[in-house]
Every structure is written in C-alpha cells, then in structure tokens.
Amino acid sequence: MFIEYTWLIPVIPLLCFLIVGFLGNKTPQGGGYIAITGAAIATVLAVLVSCEFWTSAAYSDVGYVTQQITWFTLPGGFTLHFGYYIDSLACLTMLFASFIAMLIFVYSLGYMHDEGVRKRRYFGEVSLFLTGMLGLAVSSNFLEMFIFWEIMGLCSYLLIGFWSFNHPDGDAASENAASAAKKAFLVTRLGDVCLMAGLFVLLFAFKTLDYADMFTEEALAAVDPNMIILGSLLIFGGVIGKSAQFPLLDWLPDAMAGPTTVSALIHAATMVKAGVYLTARCFPLFTQCSWILLWVAIIGGVTAFFAATMALNNMNIKKVLAYSTLSQLGYMFLALGAGGYMIALGLEQGNEALIVAGSAGYTAGLLHMVNHAFFKALLFLGSGSVIHSCGTEDMRKMGGLGKKMKITSITMLIGSLSISGFPFFAGFWSKDLIIESVMHASDFGEQTLFLILWFLAIVTAFMTAFYMFRMWFMTFQGVEGVNAHHTHGESPKSMVVPLCILSIFAAGLGFVILFGFDNLISIGENAAGNLQVGSGEGKGFEYITEIFGNVYTWMTIVLVLMAMGIAYLMYSKKTMNPGKFNKNGESRLYHALTMRWWFPQLYDQIAWKLGYGVARGVDFVDKNIIDGTVNGISNAVIGGGEILSKAQTGNVRSYTTVVFGGVVVFFCVILGIFWYMGGL
Amino acid sequence: MNIDPTIISNIFGDFTPIAPMIIMILGALIMPAIYLSSKRRNLVTGAMLAVIIISIIINFVLLVGEYTGTYAELFTYDAFSGLMILLFQTVVFLVALVSAASTETTRLYYGAYSSLLLAATTGMMFVATAGDLLTIFLGVELVSISSYALVAMKRNDPRAAEAAVKYVIIGGISTALTIYGISMLYGVTGTTNIADIATVLSTDGFSWAFGIAMITIIAGYGFKIAAVPFHMWAPDVYEGAATPVSLFLATGSKKMGLVVFFKIFLVLFVAGSAVASFATVEMQYVFAIIAAITMTVGNVVAIAQPNIKRMLAYSSIAQAGYILIVMAVMSEYALTGGLFHMFTHVFMKGGAFLIVGALISVGIGEKISDYRGLAKRAPFVAFAMLLFLFSLAGIPPLAGFTSKFILFSSAIYGDGGVMTQWIWLAFIAILNSAISLYYYARVVKAMYIEKGETTDKIKIPNAFAVAIAICVVFVIILGIYPQLILDFCSNAAAALFA
User: What's the pTM value of the predicted model, to 2 decimals?
Assistant: First the structure.
C-alpha cells in the first residue's frame, strides 16, 4: 500500500529544490525548514516502504517490486523505462541516505547560519543532491540510474565550489574551492564516460536496461559472456571515479574545500556511496566472471591501504577524515570483491557452500556501507562543530577542546571507536566480517593474493585506529592550542542534537547483524533478483560465537588496542616522540605521505602536460598552420588580395591554400586507409 | 493523429510534393514588394512569419498524413524529406521571428534580407527532397548564394563584409570541387540520379575515377558541414555575420550539408555494401576518422575561445562531428539518432545563439567575460542559457542527453546486438562530450558565480524572449518526452534506407 508511492521518495526533495530555488529567500532560514521537511517526508516514506517490503510475504518470494512507465522506444525495439525497483538493497540505501541527509540538513541550520542570502542556494542544491541519491536508489533501470548519477555529479560540483565565490577565509581559499570543484567534476566525469559506454554495451547485449529483466538466470545465460564482462568492467570504471578508488582517488581529499556539511553528505549519505550501491546492484552481472570481482577486491584493498597511510601524518582534521573515507570505501569494495569472488566460483562449480560463504562477504560490505554512513556523518559533523567553534582546520592549533566542547568530544570519541573497530561498536562487526570473508576467500584459489589483501586489511585496521585516535587526542586532549583559547564553547543545539542521534547509531547499529540483518540483505533471491544465490538463512546470535571463537578476531582487537595505546602515548601523554619514527619529518616515507604518494603530481602530469599539451597542439595547428604560417606559401600561390589580408578574423589567402591543403591531406588519409585495409 | 493529406493534394494537385517550397518561393518574391510599399520592418516580419507558418502547416499535414509523392521525377516527398523540411522551417521560423528585433540585421535592405532568407530556406527544402545530384547541387547553390549576401548584410560592422568575402571564396572553391566530382561521377556512370548511380556501381564495382569523385564531393560538401579539415571558415563567418544569420548558418545550412551527406553517401554506400569491391568498409573508416577528428578539434579549440560566438561555432563543428557518427556506422538506428540530434541541436544551439543575439541587441558584448553577473541582471536569460549549454553538454534530463544517448549508442549497435567495431568511436564521442562541459561551464560560471560590474536589470526584446522560450520548452520536452519526434525520425531513417 505504501510501495505504490515509492516514486514520491525522490520527487519530494525535487519539489523542495524547486520551492527553495524559487521562493527560498521569502521563507525563514533561506528555505532550510523546507529542505528539512522534504528530507523528513522522504525518510518517513522510505521507512514505510521498507517495512512493507520486508514484512510482506508476497514481496519476499519474488525479492523485488518494480513498476515502470515507458519513457521512449528506440528503433530496433528497445524500450526504455522510468520507474522504481524496490529490493532490500534499494530499501537499505534509501533508508540511510534520507535519514542521514535529514540530520545533516538540521545541522546545517546552525553551521551555515552566517551565510545569509546564500543559504537559499545551499539548501536548494543539497535537496537536489538528495534527489539524486534517492532516485538512484529506487530507479528501475540503468539509464534512470545514470540520470540521477549525473545529477549527483552536477550537485557535487556546485556544492564543493560553494565557497569559490567568497570563501570566509579569503581569495586563496576561494580559488582552492573552485579548482577542487572542477577536479571533482572532471575526475568523476572520466568515470562517467566508462559508465555510459558500459550502458550501451549492456543495452544492446540484453536488449533492455531494466534490472528486473536483466537479472534473471535466462537473460544472463542468453547473453554473450564477453559482453557481460565488457559491460561490467566499464561500469566498474564509473564506480572507480564516483567512489574515488585507486587510481582516481585524489579528488575526494580536495573536495574538502566545500562546507563541512557538504563533505558529510558526499562521504556519508550520497555520492561515494552511489559507487558501492552500483557495485552491489550489478552483482548478478559481476558474478558471471570471477576475475572481475578479483579486480574489485584488489582495487578495494589497495585503496584501503594507501588511503590509510596518507591519513597518518596529515594535520588537517577534515583531510584525515577524507582519507579515512577512502580507506573505508576500500574495505567495502574488498568485501564485495572477496564475497563476489566466492559466489562467482560457486556459480561456476555449482558449489552451494561457496555461494553461502560469498554472500557473507556481500552482507559484510553492505553492513559496512550503512555503518560507515552513520559514523562518518557523525565524525564529519563533529569536526564541523570543532571547526565552527575554533575557526581552523589545523589540528595543531586545536588541542584541549575536550573541556570546552564536552558533547562534541564524547560523540567524536564514539565515532572514532566505531570506525576503529573497537569491540561492540558498529564498525567492529562489519569490519571483522570483512576481514573474515577475505580470509575465507583465500581458501578457494588465488590464495597468495587474498592473503596479501587480508594482510593489507589488518594493517589498515591498525592504521585506522592509530590515525583516528591521533586526531581525537590532538583535538580534544593535551595542551590548548592557539585557536582553542578563544573558542566560544559548545556549538548550538541544532548542531549538537544530530551529533547525539548519530552517535547512538554509530555505537549500536552493528548489533543488527545479530537480529537477522543478513536475512534482510542476504544475496539470496533479494539482492540478485531471481538468481537464487545463497539460502538467506540468518545466523543471528551464532555470529557471537563465530566472531569471538576466531583467533584472528582477537588478533585484530589487540592490534587496534595497540594502535590506540600508541596514539595515546604520542599525542596525549606525549611520552613517545613521533619524531623518532619519521626522523622529525625528514624520512622519505614521511615525505611520500606528505606528497600524497605523488598522486596529485601524477594527475597534473597527465591532465596538464598531456591533456593540455594536446589541446595546445591542436590549437597551435589550428591557429598557426591553418590560419597563419601558410601566409608565405599563399603569397606565392595567390598574389594580391592585400586588403583582405588585413582581416582581423583570419586570412583569406591562407584559407584558399588550406582548402586545397585540406583536400590533399584528406586524399592522403583516404589513400592511407585504403592501403592499410587492402581495399584497392 | 489522423490527418488526411488529400486536403493539400486537392489544392496543389501534381505540385503537392513541392507545396511547402512553392509557398516559400512566393513569399520570397513578395517580401521586397511589401517592404518597398510600407517601409515597415515589422510588417515584413509578420508577412514572413505568416508565409513560414502556412508552409509549416502544409508540411506538417503531409508529414503526419504520411504522404509520399514525386514531382517531375526530381523531387520526392517522403518521411525523410518531410522531416528535414520541418527542421529547416523551424530554423527559419526562429530566425525570422527575431530578425526585426535584432540591432545587427540590416535596416536598409530588410526586404532583400527577408527575401534571401526565404529563398535560402527553399534551397534547403529542395535539397531535402532531391534525389538527383544536379538538383542537390542547385539547391545547395541557392542556399549558398543567398547566404553569402545574408552574411554581408549587417549593420555597421566591417567584420561582416570580410566574413562574406571569405565565405564567397571558400564557397566558390567548394562548389568547384563538388561540380568536378559530380561531372566525374557522371562520366563514370552516365547518370546523375543517385539511385541509378548505385545500381550502375553495384555491377561495375569501385574504380579510381569513382574514388576521386567521392573525395572531391566529400571535400566540397565537407565545407558545408564544416568538417575538419574543411572547418576554418566557420568561426570567422559565424563571428562576422549578424547573430540571427549565424544561427541560420549553424543550425540550418550545416544541417543541409548533413542531409546531402545522408542523401548521397549513405544511400550510395549502403546500396553498395553488398558488393565487396565497393569499399564500403574503407569509406566507413574514412568517415569515422573525420568524425573523430572533427569532434575532437571542435571541442578542444572551443576551450580556448574568449568570444562566445566563436566558441559556439567550434562547438557546432564538434556537434557535426557527433552527427558524422551516422556516416561511420551507416545503420538505420544511427540515422535515427542523427536526425534526432539534428532536431535537438536546432533548439539548444539555436537557443544559445538567440541569447547571444538578444544580448548584443541590448548592448552586451560577445566576450564570455561580458556575461559576468548575468544571472542577477537577467535571471530568465541566464537560466535559459544554462539549460541550453547543459543540454549541449549532454546533462540529463535535457534534450541533448537523450539525443546523444541514442546517437552515441548507435556506434555499438549492429545486427540486433553489440557491435564492437565502432566502440572506440563511441568512447571518443562520450569523452568529447565530457570535455565540452568544461567550456560550457565557463559561461555558466561567468553568469552565475562571477560578479558583474553592474546589477542593472536587462530587458531583452520581446521577439527574442518568445523565440528563446520556444527553445527552452523544446529542450525540456524533447529530453523528457523524446517520443514526440523520435517516431518521425525512425520513419525518416526507414524511408531513406528503403
């Protein structure tokens, strides 16, 4: 009864965008209340729809509900639709996205308080951003998904560049925001190019882009496997761009130039989660070939590790959190990759047990996506609260804020414990399941590779605990920093309340795994359409014995505690000097980390030297060869025409030369092609 | 819709296939008289619009009624030519609507201006219906010679005269090349009818003389669509001409060149593709390379342009490159996408040129930097410009996205499934489309983010506002409801391939 109204979920924030956009300044808070109301209605609807979906037996048999209208028909009989497709993955995504977005909007009332008339723009754009994410979650086919995907890209560009006009910190910061926005847009567009090409391949391979028709055993069996592989790889290219995975990971830290609330939205509720969502959505395709998922796992593991190293010595509180997002996203892809690898092998060999083991990895990845959404939103909003009160992002200028900002400090501690994987906090459960499924995957082939990935995951867990507590101790403990002196205490209520709500989830959400989360999400009939993969039998409380009966769990816990201890000794008690390990910042490794492993330089080399070089080259040819340098020749060919040569806009004599030059070049090209192809 | 085309054929009899052109020609003849007797530009504009609307109605009835017919075995009206005639009529409608309101168009010779505008459109319409190389040639010449004069007719701007002279010289060369190719083709096959040429060639196969004829004709008409390396005249001429005329050239004249490509090469090579010695595959690669280079050069050079008219000119070159994908793929699906993109391009590029023209008419320059702070000064115009540019860049759910989706996807569709032969072309096209956003975003940034020197409100002439509004409506509707015109496009493609 509510499911028929699913289409309202993205439409309501869209309406809010329009209302705020046109009338925002006539309403209080520049339309802030309208945006919040919209997000709240979307949340309520999402809850109702999810409840109905999860409780009704009629739906759980099929695993999805879909309804669509025809958008347009292409020649060749391809029909493209617009509609909704609700399965457990869609429910999960829209639930956390709408709820967290709502909290972030409430928080924005306080955080963006001083923006004046520009609040209208802010609240309009974040509403559209939310439309993008919710539309993506409920869309019924790949083309519809792509449209919302692009809308989100556009919004991220606008929001990251929100301060490119007049940054509170001056012109340099404005420039920085503008270039960060551009970078985010262009890098993710690079991924979008792949994604769009992938859509074309899938459209013609499957003759449809509707999830319901594509993800059936018959449809998958009928399609040329090579086309599925090609399409899957291209789609994963889009995911790499959007979710900032290796090697396109550098735009996300730069995107910190936007307001902190925007960072929270991008990192927790929308944008980067879209990539995880899409990977999970494409599981029926990806699992047709095991090495695709091997690549997913490798890229995830490598990103998790590299991003964590870059967070180790960063002094900017938001950048540390940005790298931690990259690292945690890496975990999600690692889990999806490892789990999917087992499912793919299981499908190849017809091994039921392997499929069940693999769906555990899938569950772990999705659980981590939800958990991460909560604790990362909490951490970003907490850091926003800190920045709001002491006016800097440099952790060296903070310190000792714990006394002045008690609630922020405690909620941030909960977030840090959760992301570090401290026992019983949300992050612990999902992270442990991820590490376990990677270990599990190593039993079934590619043993060395998965052991290396497992090792990277363990080391990353250690580093995560270290840099998170380094951040927490540097900010809230120890001697008061320069900016900590003149803070005006705790942030306003509109900012603190969302923090408290989020911290409850960040602490306790992990327990859902004991109460049948894997039943809801099991890849079974639900997530993979009609694939009938996995049994969907929830383990419930068995997880406790399974997790704590495992020696590796204890090893991870000990590593995490050790890392927290080291951070405490280094940055709170200060009995251990970090300078001893990095030769006071002189060591090569430290330098490499400061230079972000030279990723920005690499991009600059590629983008500027190569891309700009090509652009300049073409421009040069166009201006000089075609417009200018031929003047000499043309003088010889066609005399006179002095009057015309004074043209401001170009030179006619050279043109006529070029006309024939062009024909000759064209003739040569054609001859070349014919010669190459043996045509004549 | 059930419309009976006999209403029209009862009036026009044997002339029904060329009925829309007859109206246009009559209009072209009457316009100078109206202007000379009244000296009122608005009256002429009104008459012009009336003529165009009558012509549109006639054509629309014929098109929707699925009329087919041939006049004197030279001009064939079918789904394809009907659709293209509609496209040219749309273009000339937009141009005629704003011509009197623009401060750039000629005041003294307005009668001649409107006469030439209608004559040029008639030429385009004849090209759309022609099935013979000579009638195509005559139609193109009618367009070319009229548009040389149109480019020259600009008020108080020496650049226009220069641009016109350049255009004449380049146009003359391209005409010479074309007629040379046509005469060679006649020498080889003994006919100028395209269908007959295809029949002769499919038995005789490919020969050197035929190859050279093809090269010169491609080069000659390559100038009309400004395909690289025959593109260099376009930015100068578009910049120099009055903006409504630039609009006419960029959206109308260029489309006519593409129609010629479809009519001659698509028909010839698709007909000959059954014959191995016909070299269809090689020619596909030739077109694919032209397409790839054209879109890349257009987009890359557009990045460096500070003048918005030049930027739009280069972006038109790039758009022609996209549409040339049709020539590489040579499938009905691709042609459908190409025709659809030609329509959406009229509204998005036309809309952008209209805004440039409107702003010139109220004294704002042609530099992108002149657009700073426009969002504050003219919110409607800035928003419309944003829509047009985003649509050109292919941002969903605007018209440009839908048409690019169909056009680009055609590059990997063949034989009812995925065809990997042209996947690189699709990739280059999508990549180019991503690059293009970079320079469109510069204009958006200037309008919305950068501060202008003044915040005085701007009032653009009403005629421009109406024309822009029409374009906005279609850019949105064709994005959300592409079926409106897509069926016509696929019918047209089927008609050409039949």
Answer: 0.88
